């Protein structure tokens, strides 16, 4: 029995994304050839063009997939914390530390910005700002965060964590840079905590 068309389309897209993700994660965007990942997926260039337009379109799809996985991981980290404030801090720190993971480092924080431009302008950035805004509103409502404009705080925290991750990903000593970034970031967040005294 033949598979429904929607299922075949989804399988083709998934194969191309998996092959692209593997290539981008191992040899990088510049080193990855369209023929390599279409062959790895058992598909043609035509399938790649049809579903993603070009190599850049495939990179965007891979980044969306990794971003969704990172978000799910961050949500689990936040949910596992003993309280809402600690969950917020743990989630922000974990995002920065993910820049040490080779696949995330190369695809999200090196090749992504090099090919797609400023990370703050990516379509996924709006979702990050919205999620941070929601967390900040809740922290303020619970009396855990100082009175601060929610959108401004969300954008500043998002920008600081993104730039910290970029700094780590492009550092000659990423482990050391990560420690520096995380220590400084914890201090910045602690400055936003209400009722410390």
UniProtKB/TrEMBL annotation:
Tree of life domain: Bacteria
Key words of the record: DNA-binding
Classification via InterPro entries: Homeodomain-like_sf, HTH-type_TetR-like_transc_reg, HTH_TetR, Rv0078-like_C
Keyword Chloroplast tagged: no
DNA-binding region ranges: 33-52
Gene3D superfamilies: Tetracycline Repressor, domain 2 (1.10.357.10)
Domain called HTH tetR-type: residue spans: 10-70
Protein name stated in the entry: TetR/AcrR family transcriptional regulator
């Amino acid at each position: 029995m033949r598979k429904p068309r929607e299922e075949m389309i989804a399988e083709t897209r998934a194969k191309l994304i998996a092959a692209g993700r593997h290539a981008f994660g191992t040899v990088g965007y510049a080193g990855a050839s369209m023929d390599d990942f279409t062959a790895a997926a058992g598909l043609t260039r035509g399938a790649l063009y049809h579903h993603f337009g070009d190599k850049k379109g495939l990179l965007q799809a891979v980044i969306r997939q990794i971003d969704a996985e990172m978000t799910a991981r961050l949500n689990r980290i936040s949910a596992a914390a003993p309280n809402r404030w600690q969950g917020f801090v743990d989630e922000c720190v974990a995002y920065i530390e993910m820049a040490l993971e080779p696949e995330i480092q190369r695809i999200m924080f090196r090749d992504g910005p090099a090919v797609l431009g400023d990370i703050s302008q990516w379509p996924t950035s709006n979702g990050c700002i919205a999620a941070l805004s929601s967390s900040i509103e809740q922290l303020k409502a619970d009396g855990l965060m100082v009175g601060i404009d929610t959108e401004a705080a969300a954008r500043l925290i998002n920008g600081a964590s993104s730039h910290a991750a970029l700094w780590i990903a492009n550092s000659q000593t990423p482990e050391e840079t990560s420690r520096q970034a995380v220590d400084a970031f914890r201090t910045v967040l602690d400055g936003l905590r209400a009722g410390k005294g």
